[in-house]
Amino acid sequence: MVSMNRLKKPLTFAFAAVAVFATVASAADRKEARSQVEFGIKVAAQGLWKEAIYRWERAVELDPTYAAAFNNLAVAYETAGWFDKAKKAYERALELDPKNLYIKQNFDLFKEINDRANRQSSR
Amino acid sequence: MRIANRLASAALVLAASACTTMFEVPVETPIKPKLDVTAFSRVLVAGFVAGGTEDVDANLETVRLLRSQLKNKSNLKVIDADVLPLREVAAKNQPARQADPASPAPATDLPAVIKEDRDLQAFEPLFANAAYWKKIGEEFQSPLIVTGTIMFAPQATTGYVQREQEVYDTFGRRQVVPVRTFMERKGFILKPKFIFIDGRTGAVLYTETFREEVLYSVEQSNPALSTYFELMDRLVPSFLSALSSQSIRGTRTLLK
Q: What is the pLDDT of residues A61-99, one digit of tens each?
């Protein structure tokens, strides 16, 4: 019993340390995701959409709750003509941030084009 | 004091730009062509069976317009060849068809003048004649062949039309109110049917039909040819989207 009690303290300490470390790691991921998103915006502004896709895919891997990254990724997929992927990314962005008007507006514009493309292929 | 104000406004601008989390970017969204034309490097706009009015040679004008559009907006090499007189070709092919007792379809007489849609139906067997189109394809090194029918006909209607009218009240204030008036109107209707044929086999790959119309008041005088181009202008992008990918320009918002 004594030995168990002796063990309890270091174990609790270890769990706390792991928990703190995990939080720190996810904060680091979020920071890294943000820098990937910022870099993606820079390269997208220069028309380098493939590089932007790589950056934003990395960002959503690092932080799967990052609505802006999903929005940007959806825009990039759209410019690549990957409409299915773009739709999923927009939907995920809106799930994460349903009140964001910019995402809504982007999605509405995308839907217009997607509908048109679907009409063409179904003719 | 002035310097302090300027500094404060500069600080505000800086703070605002630092907080900017959205960026509007121009985008070009590509739309895939309806038809896979990767097997073709050349296109032959062969000719059309046209009718409806004598004022415009819709066969010749359509061939010229589509060839010039394809030259500018597609990757296919456009073959400049004489326009096929398809009505004559259909007439030539008809006696042979009538003489063939094995032919399952009863031969229909080709109309001397094409005035309505049903007149064009008599020419349908020509487009299904794979042997004929294969022969044309061999002549031009197996291109993608574009052909079909064009109905460009005048139309006139009478009825109530809603339009806006200016009125002034007792105080001289201007108002615009909708007014329904009985009007006689005239115009044209354009109904092209584009048929895309594989020049290697003579088989029909894809068919697309369009319908556009325009009506003017009877006092307005619009030449038939300019109306024809006005209507074709509306549907040429759809025609081109069958063969080449198009991109739609717009803007999207990127977020931080």
A: 999 999 999 999 999 999 999 999 999 999 999 999 999
Chain A partners within 8 Å of B28 (Cβ) = 79
Range of the domain at B72: 35-240
**Dihedral over Cα of B195, B196, B200, B201: its sign:** negative
Q: Report d(CA A31, CA A14) in Å as an integer.
A: 25
- The domain that holds B70 is classified in CATH as 3.40.50
User: Which residues from chain A sit within 8 angstroms of residue B34, using beta carbons?
Assistant: 120-121, 123
Cβ neighbours of A41 in B, within 8 Å: 23, 254, 256
- Predicted ipTM? 0.80
Place of tokens 């703190």: A20
Q: Note whether A34 contacts B: Cβ–Cβ < 8 A.
A: yes
When scoring A79, A92, A99, A111 by the number of chain B Cβ atoms within 10 A, the one with the most, hence best to mutate, is A79
Subunit contact B253:A102, Cβ cutoff 8 A: yes
Length of chain B: 256
For chain A, domains (ranges, CATH) are: 2-122 (1.25.40.10)
Classified as helix, coil or strand, B83 is coil
d(CA B195, CA B201) in angstroms, rounded, equals: 14
| Residue B144 parent element (H or E) | strand B144-168
Say how far apart CA A86 and CA A91 lie, in whole Å. 9
Rounded Cα distance between A110 and A70, Å, is 14
* Whether the model pTM is above 0.90: no
Q: Tell me if B51 is assigned to some domain.
A: yes
Residue B101, token pair as written in the block? 């007792």
User: Hey, how many other C-beta atoms are within 10 angstroms of the C-beta on B192?
Assistant: 23
